[in-house]
Design brief:
141 residues, mainly alpha, 4 helices
Length: 141
C-alpha cells in the first residue's frame, strides 16, 4: 500500500514540537525525589551459595573523582538517592557524552550474576488496544 506523505515545513514542525513540549513540561523535568511506593516494591532475590558482591571502586582521575562527588552530592541534595548501609556495593563508571558532559552509570554486572531476574510478562500492545476499543473517556484513579 502506497501512502502519500505531505511535505511539512520544518519551522512549523519545530513550533508544534515546542508547543507540545511546553504543555507537557512536567514530564521532562529532572527528578526531584524518590518515586512513590508502588504495588510491587523492588527486592533483590539472591541465588543460593554466592557471596554478596562488594566490589572496590574503579581507579579514577582526579577530575573524574571530583565529578563523581559532585553527581552524588547533587543527587543526595535533591533526594534521588539516600545514604545506605547495604552490604551490596557496585562500582561507578563515568561515560563521556557527545556534548562533553559525563553520564553517571553503575556497573551492576557482579550483582546481576548472583540474583534471580524479575520476570514479568510484558503486555502485548494489540491486546491493550483491544481493551481500549470504543473508549472515549479516560481517567486516572
Amino acid at each position: 500500500m502506497v501512502q502519500n506523505h505531505e511535505v511539512v515545513d520544518s519551522k512549523a514542525c519545530t513550533k508544534e514540537v515546542e508547543q507540545v513540549l511546553a504543555s507537557y513540561g512536567e514530564v521532562f523535568q529532572e527528578f526531584q525525589e524518590l518515586p512513590p511506593t508502588r504495588k510491587q516494591d523492588h527486592a533483590i532475590h539472591l541465588k543460593e551459595g554466592p557471596s554478596i558482591p562488594n566490589l572496590r571502586p574503579y581507579k579514577y582521575s582526579h577530575s573524574q573523582k571530583n565529578e563523581i562527588e559532585r553527581f552524588i552530592g547533587d543527587m543526595l541534595n535533591v533526594g534521588i538517592i539516600r545514604p545506605s548501609i547495604s552490604p551490596y556495593s557496585s562500582p561507578i563508571i563515568l561515560v563521556k557524552k557527545k556534548d562533553g558532559g559525563w553520564r553517571f552509570c553503575v556497573d551492576y554486572r557482579a550483582l546481576n550474576k548472583v540474583t534471580f531476574p524479575n520476570k514479568f510478562h510484558i503486555p502485548v500492545i494489540d491486546e491493550l488496544l483491544d481493551e481500549l476499543a470504543g473508549a472515549t473517556i479516560f481517567s486516572n484513579p
